[in-house]
Amino acid sequence: MSRPAVLAALEGGAWRSGAELAGRLGITRAAVWKQVARLRAQGYEIEAAPGRGYRLLASPDRLLPAVIERHAGRPWPGFRVVHREVVDSTNRLAADLARRGAPEGTAVVAEAQTAGRGRLGRSWASPRARNLYLSLVLRPPLAPSAAPQIALAAALSVVRAIAAEGAGGAEIKWPNDVLLGGAKVAGILAELEAEAERLRFVVLGVGVNLNAREADFPAELRGRATSLLETTGRRVDRARFTGRLLGFLARDYGVFLRGGFAALRPEYERFHGLRGRRVEVRGGVAAAGKVRGVDDDGALLLEGPAGLVRILAGEVTLSGAAGAWPCA
Ligand code: BTN
Predict the structure, then answer these.
(1) With 50 as the cut, is the pLDDT of residue 232 above it?
(2) Which of 93, 96, 122, 124 to probe ligand 1 with, by most ligand atoms within 8 A of CB?
(3) How much is the pLDDT for 16?
(4) Bridge partner list, 55
(5) CA 109, CA 246: separation in Å to the nearest integer?
(6) Residue 175, SS3 per DSSP
(7) Can you tell me which atom of ligand 1 is nearest the CA of 184?
(8) DSSP one-letter code for 226
(9) Res. 262: pLDDT tops 70
């Protein structure tokens, strides 16, 4: 369901007269009033004054495009926010839009997902109006092998956005999970379409648990997944968070395009929670050892019995702590 036209016209908070709204939207003033009444019933605070018209004072906790855009600045020339109340997966919708020509910087957000996708074929818990479900269309002029590095860069952007909320201590768990207090707070799923040697587009899917409560997570994730609200005790303005995150994503992606992952590596390492830890890797090549860091391509460097090995893909768990750091 898309936003009512009157709401879109009132976003930004300026006064709009009934006549102006009616003219702009091609409806009667009575229809404007009806839409205002419906919005109020949904929790929007709309002031009405004779001679001035209407203005939006406060919105319920919604991922309003105008608010997101205000906090994002102008991250991409083609930047646009597509908002849905419910969607199966924002990654699916963003990929459809990309196939139909949506430019780089098209951002899809939803209040809820019915089939949110996680890494390794898992699902992503997506309760309504609690968290952020974001998918961004990118068109990097690069080979398909670059896509995983974009996801690493995005993990860094998520850590920055969390720090901007005043929540310290977020860590990256290679390749691109973000943890707070040892539990997963965000995950990233980059999906791509490519022809031979060139990426056609990447859909960068980012899920961040913002205002979810423990009870909002499925039973099997309790204690292993967390949210900013659970960790800090403070509710997050989801639209502001989303806007700021898009600003960080644009900046880190720009650095990546100019200098490769090598340009972001020192910052990534600063927040990399696995450094110096003993881990086991499964999924790709099975390996175990002590994490030395990541290299300029974003591969995990593991010191094992046979020396230093580069891990390109796989799932990492702390040795002797099976399940402690899961993929939520
Ligand atoms: C992971 O398993 O860690 C990755 C989770 C990615 C979830 C996000 S939510 C927004 C976007 N849409 C999806 O269906 N998945 C990603």
Answers:
(1) yes
(2) 124
(3) 96
(4) 47
(5) 12
(6) coil
(7) 3
(8) -
(9) yes
Burial of 281 (C-beta count, 10 Å sphere; 0-12/13-18/19+): buried
End-to-end CA distance of the chain: 28
* Average pLDDT of span 283-287: 81
For residue 248, give both structure tokens: 């960080």
pLDDT of residue 3: 65
Query: Computed from CA positions of residues 162, 63, 131, 92, in that sequence, does the dihedral angle turn out positive or negative?
Result: negative
Q: Look at residue 66 and tell me whether its pLDDT is greater than 90.
A: no
Instruction: Report the residue among 92, 97, 109, 206 best suited for mutation to probe ligand 1: largest number of ligand atoms under 8 A from its CB.
Output: 206
Q: What is the 3-state secondary structure (H, E, C) of 93-162?
A: HHHHHHHCCCCCCEEEEEEEECCCECHHHCECCCCCCCCEEEEEEECCCCCHHHHHHHHHHHHHHHHHHH
Q: Which residues line ligand 1 (CB under 6 A)?
A: 89-91, 113, 116-119, 122, 124, 133-135, 177, 187-189, 205-207, 327
Q: CA-to-CA distance for 237 and 227, rounded, in angstroms? A: 13
